[in-house]
Specification:
The chain is mainly α. It has helices spanning about 1-15, 15-20, 30-35, 40-65, 70-95, 100-130, 140-150, 160-185, 190-195, 205-220, 275-280, 285-295, and strands at about 235-240, 250, 265. Helix 1 (about 1-15) packs antiparallel against helix 7. The longest helix has 28 residues, at about 100-130. The protein starts with a helix and ends with a helix. The model has no long low-confidence stretch (mean pLDDT about 95). InterPro entries: DUF885. Pfam families: DUF885.
Length: about 300
Amino acid sequence: MAVIDEQLFSLDEARLPFTNPVFYGAIGPDVYLSREYAPLEKRMKAYTVYANNVPVAVGQIIENMETPLPKTFAEVGKRISHGLATHMSDGVPGIFSGVDDTTLQSEFSIANGIATASMKKLGDWYESQIETATDDYALGEEQYKKMLWMSERVNTTLDELETIALADLDRNTKDLAKACEEFAPGESITDCVAKAQADKPEGGAVEGARNQLSDLKQFLIDNNLVSIPGDEESLVDEAPPHNRWNFAYIEIPGPYEKGLPSIYYIAPPDPSWSKEEQRNYVPGKSDLMFTSVHEV
């Protein structure tokens, strides 16, 4: 019931289809591109049908969104939509380049061009909303309490939740200080954390995560923590441009899909950043391990 209530909250209370661009993230084409559920030619045909329908979806999204949007929402919408446009124009053709069917390639090229232009139009529309955007993104106390109940069945008062959270923060801060006494004796907690963050994974976050997953699997086996069903293992890949607003996420096959891997995606640094900013963006090994455990 909580799962149903959570969805009802998103639709009826938070009204995400009208207020939050992330709601429409599901219209991305990843299922046709990264899931080998069928031969490439069949997936190309399906993608072409999808691409031909993107303009309709874009028109409906623009019609649905209520303005003014919160500024951060408009910025994320722009980033997702422009990222999709870039992915469609620069990445998708290469994925289907091996299909030896001139008619299908022609149909795909036309449809993909239409979809790319539509996604750019959507990104431009979100960008045009930034100037008049607001900071009014908060749910508010009553909506927040309703969300906690409908999604988690939590009816603890907000004052009590704050007390619990602050106590937990204090406990963790003391544990961190104790760990820093061993890891970086004599240094402040800030410098201690910076030292840990400076220990970057070799080859970047994606390559580092690949190495971590094999170690994590062996840790589960050696310590007999949980059984591992089957021999399928999660892949690790660089996140496509439209999903780089989120540092890491995982796509898991549905319950009726067999023999398809989960894919753990990690967003690379923005190439427009300075070298120092790009290096700082890549998490240290310990933080990346935390993310790998969480996602996989």
